[in-house]
């Protein structure tokens, strides 16, 4: 249902949300999100194009969130790479349907609506600030290593 | 959120659901669903591969549902072309996550669950048997024409 790009974008944004005030080097991003670097570069460009992150490409480059993790929700991230669209008029362009959707497209639109509401209500802060249970991208060993590697920069 | 292929597969199945006992010629299918014929051919192959339709390709070919419209739901159709998968273990393969999903993947899985439940509960019969309001693929003029064109075969 969600593309690989969507999954990767969410991973990258979750990682950046752990370090909202720091430029995270792109090799660290690639390693921690387990996304192939060339694929990740494209995803980061899209996120940057949507003004969700700022930074610079290339050697020595890195990225950080352009807003606080509390101000970016999952839908913002998804919409930056693969927008979820409501169906507002007949996709077949049938004249006497118009905005009066048939049962097929009404159901598809309901699905879009439910998903939009679900993701709109979850910020990046909600994803990474949980203190108990497993945390995005982090097993215990990696979490420790990551903190060290970024704070040295 | 849903691919073009998913949209086209649902259109094709809705059309076939109007005529559960007849082989609908592929040119009619293409015309009424407004799907490019070569694209439609691939979609029909996938639906046939999932045993949702039976028929034959090529000139003089056509397709019909392999079961009654009451026995095929929207999820069956979607899963035939672009399966919606639940997330059951950590997509990053983090050892200490396992099936204990982090908040990110728990939300993504919730979305998949909601969508599965929504589409599982709607059969093709539900889509085409509505008597009031607009009906899938049909404006009033086309609906009349379609009945005539198929019943002549």
Describe the structure in your own words.
With 153 residues, chain A is mainly alpha-helical. Chain A has one domain (4-151): Orthogonal Bundle (Arc Repressor Mutant, subunit A), CATH 1.10.10.10. Chain A is built from 7 helices and 3 strands, in the order H-E-H-H-E-E-H-H-H-H. Chain A has helices at residues 4-18, 26-33, 37-49, 74-81, 103-120, 124-128, 140-151, and strands at residues 24-25, 53-56, 62-65. A 3-stranded antiparallel β-sheet of chain A has the order 1-3-2. In chain A, a hairpin with a 5-residue loop joins strand 2 (53-56) and strand 3 (62-65). In chain A, helix 1 packs across helix 2, helix 1 (4-18) crosses helix 3 (37-49) and helix 1 (4-18) packs across helix 4. The longest helix of chain A is centred in the last third of the chain and has 18 residues, at 103-120. The radius of gyration of chain A is 18 Å and the shape is elongated. At the A-B interface, helix 1, helix 5 and helix 6 of A face helix 1, helix 5 and helix 6 of B.
Q: Identify low-pLDDT runs of chain A.
A: none
How many distinct beta strands of chain A? 3
> Order of strands in the sheet with the most strands of chain A?
1-3-2
Q: Nearest-angstrom radius of gyration of chain A?
A: 18 Å
CATH homologous superfamily annotation of chain A: Winged helix-like DNA-binding domain superfamily/Winged helix DNA-binding domain
Looking at the structure, what is the overall shape of chain A?
Answer: elongated
Mean pLDDT of chain A: 89
Q: How much of the residues of chain A is beta strand, in percent?
A: 5-15%
Q: Please tell me the total number of domains of chain A.
A: 1
